[in-house]
Design a protein that fits this description.
Strand order of the largest sheet: 1-2-6-3-4-5
Strand content: 15-25%
Keywords: Signal
Order of helices and strands: HHHHEHHEHEEEEHHEEEEEEHHEEE
Number of strands: 15
Number of helices: 11
Signal peptide: 1-19
InterPro entries: DUF3103
Number of domains: 2
Distance between the termini: 29 Å
Helix content: 25-40%
Protein name: DUF3103 family protein
Organism: Sphaerisporangium album
Radius of gyration: 22 Å
């Protein structure tokens, strides 16, 4: 899970800036690459992983490959590219990984994003004792629908989306923890190319101001992170928007990697909003979740479309509705999930703030960031 605020200030004050790609592209290069490769629609990620799950199931008919899968997933999950290396799956997995990178508008050199993991840890003993697992792709739609799983012994099995089966299930999906930092950098580059640059207080500005106020998240809890049993941990990010000192709408994206599970209270002490660069000392937060299908360039384009039409009228205008209304209809099922939103956070915001959707809350307090 995640939230959004000024990325530079977040790095300077918390040391937890979102990682950039190993070879980050410029905004124009990222967009040109996505156009040149004709990135498929978000739903194609599942098409790729579902086809690959069937191929993995076929390979697991070989006992030696099956034992290799048991060993690889013993600790929880395995890089599917590394697992397939030296096997008949190698070429298929590498091709599938490139297709997923394209579908998510990520650089072609973004590395291996596909993983193989055991869906339910309680079935690990059965798997270790030789029970033949099913193989399924994590769906990219949270709507309750049967999950298609493939049997290495032949055939296709329909699984209940609400209840994990007793038989071990190996899942082929996107490692969003790897993809999200790469994707958020693509999003930031694309937003910056459209003039939606987040306020970035420099050390000189902070020193000149003698410091500034921020909103610190002391605790946060979500009632529902929109994840069925087969999907594993959530990956949350937030879009924080407000008006810059020039009166133009500004937005940034921040990752909250600790928000793994719903029904759990986390105590991050994370600085969420940095007000030095905001005209009205006010900001909005839209919290969302990436389920593996997010096309980050399309996300940036949707946000830009919403915010570039907003004009400063001399008083603060909440930006949450504009951001949400710009999202394509398909994103309300799973790409990405809307988790909750918080309107008009201020330098004085304190105590428990319930989300507008009623799906979560944050305990916040003002925090003075001293000059550095």
């Amino acid at each position: 899970m995640a939230a959004l605020a000024t990325v530079t200030a977040l790095a300077l004050t918390t040391g937890t800036a979102v990682a950039a790609p190993s070879n980050p592209d410029s905004a124009s290069a990222s967009e040109a690459q996505a156009v040149e490769r004709k990135a498929p629609l978000p739903s194609e990620v599942f098409t790729v992983t579902d086809r690959l799950a069937e191929q993995v199931a076929g390979a697991l008919a070989d006992k030696a490959v099956r034992e290799r899968a048991v060993a690889a997933t013993a600790a929880g999950e395995a890089d599917l590219t590394a697992f397939a290396s030296g096997t008949a799956l190698d070429r298929s997995v590498r091709a599938a990984n490139q297709d997923v990178l394209a579908a998510k508008a990520l650089p072609a050199n973004g590395g291996s994003l596909l993983r193989l993991r055991l869906a339910d840890p309680s079935t690990r003993a059965a798997l270790a004792h030789g029970e033949v697992p099913l193989v399924a792709a994590a769906p990219t739609d949270d709507e309750p629908a049967p999950i298609a799983a493939y049997d290495p012994l032949g055939g296709k099995v329909s699984l209940d989306p609400a209840k994990a089966p007793r038989r071990p299930v190996l899942v082929v999906d996107v490692d969003v923890a790897k993809a999200l930092p790469l994707g958020l950098q693509v999003t930031r580059d694309a937003l910056a190319a459209r003039g939606l640059v987040a306020a970035k207080p420099s050390g000189a500005q902070v020193k000149a101001a003698g410091g500034y106020w921020a909103t610190k998240v002391n605790a946060v809890r979500l009632n529902n992170d929109e994840e069925p049993w087969i999907k594993g941990d959530a990956e949350i990010f937030s879009v924080v928007g407000g008006f810059g000192l020039d009166g133009k709408a500004t937005v940034t994206v921040v990752q909250m990697p600790y928000l793994d599970n719903d029904g759990t209270t986390y105590y991050p002490n994370q600085l969420l909003v940095h007000y030095l660069g905001y005209k009205y000392n006010l900001a909005d937060v839209v919290m969302m979740e990436d389920d593996g299908d997010t096309n980050y360039l399309a996300l940036a384009q949707a946000i830009a479309t919403a915010l570039l039409t907003i004009i400063d009228a001399g008083a603060y205008i909440p930006l949450v509705n504009a951001i949400l209304s710009a999202m394509p209809d398909s994103w309300w099922t799973d790409d990405p999930d809307y988790v909750d939103s918080w309107y008009t956070l201020a330098t004085t915001s304190s105590g428990r703030l319930n989300g507008a959707r009623g799906n979560g809350w944050m305990d916040v307090s003002p925090y003075w960031v001293p000059e550095f």
